[in-house]
Mitochondrial pyruvate carrier (Vitis rotundifolia), 108 residues
Amino acid sequence: MAASKLQALWNHPVGPKTIHFWAPTFKWGLSIANAADFSKPPEELSYPLQFAVACSGLIWSRYCTVITPRNWNLLGVNAAMAGTGMYQLSRKIWHDYSSKTEAEIANE
């Protein structure tokens, strides 16, 4: 029984014999690297980079739901990219907003 399930996975249209399996598998590295930057100070984050990561994740997540065959690994990695990108953007925006507020208070 296990052998037949393994055979089915191997021969699946988005199985390990295709680029549809390996591209999103390696793309997880981007999401993991972005999540590793959660400990990085917000002033070191880049607006353009995080905006690109978030938008790429959102756009391609939508695409993953309309292509045939459906690629759930690709959907998962793109959702993770969108989530980590939006979280990093929110950290950067919050930091920049609170820094300006503290500076304005100091000037008064």
Summary: Residues 11 and 30 are 27 Å apart (CA to CA). Residues 72-107 form the longest helix (36 residues).
